């Protein structure tokens, strides 16, 4: 009788819509969480992977990694959340203290010393599109039962998905899900690149290349830090008004300077270069410019945009004291710090509403991709299952 009662409450497979087809989402195994996606936003990285430029993307897969959700069921041993919790699934996991102490991966020592937020324990599986419990995905095609892989450990373009418990951040129930979903990647990434990775100081000069969601979040973060000058660089002047609203002191269209390298323009405008620069496009030429536009002796260029090509600069640019950095998810430890960012939004300390330019449904995801290619708008938020 006891076993019958247990079987009665065991999670069952769920058939649902995943963007353009029907899939079966299987129950969570040990350490896993099955969640119902409420809203998901389209990020450039989704399209980067869909295009085939991402060598790690494994197909067929369910894309999407910037979302809000509610926990539908949990597997054995889950301690980070409970059924009914509102959550943000995070592509960057935050491991447990006991795993760090046990040195479960090569990142643990640096993680413990606060040198990194990267977790290799879960990453080795999410990079393959599978779950850690058994090395298999929790998705299959409804039509023939063939496997469908996960994307970045989240797969938010599905009505339901399964995540590792290390990748689920519980958020306040009063947070508007259609807005705070942006803290699953775009806005959080830009804020953290400025506040954590580069650690911009008050009175600094800053240049931001690319005024998409991440770049505009960098502009906002620099303004919040008290930067004296914030240069916003983009060929699309439609984005300049919002950049100024978020804190840009000067907007620059590189096309106005012909063939002249934009880094030379910035060096001239800023009496030798800016203190900090952020590349948020994923263009190898702008990545180089983000280093070379900084001041010799102390300038820091931070690469945030995803790029499939190799980049280069003359070694002398580094020998003269500049630093090149990279920033993944802004250096945040998501289970702990994403809820703090949500609270900052609720307290009026950061802006999110202004980043949402389009609202659509999951069935319109291809139109959202088309708008992304046109550079029309900042973020498209897709209604997935929310009433």
UniProtKB/TrEMBL annotation:
Q: For this UniProt entry, which residues form the secretion signal?
A: none
User: Which residues are in the Alcohol dehydrogenase-like C-terminal domain?
Assistant: 214-343
* Cellular component, GO annotation: cytosol
Q: Which residues form the Alcohol dehydrogenase-like N-terminal domain?
A: 30-172
Which domain of life does the protein's organism represent?
Eukaryota
Q: Give one GO biological process term.
A: formaldehyde catabolic process
**Per the entry, which co-factors are needed?**
Zn(2+)
Print the keywords alphabetically. Metal-binding, NAD, Zinc
Where are the bilayer-spanning segments? none
Q: Which GO terms describe its molecular function?
A: S-(hydroxymethyl)glutathione dehydrogenase [NAD(P)+] activity; zinc ion binding
PANTHER family assigned to the protein according to its UniProt record, in alphabetical order: ALCOHOL DEHYDROGENASE, ALCOHOL DEHYDROGENASE CLASS-3
What's the protein called, per UniProt? Alcohol dehydrogenase class III, putative
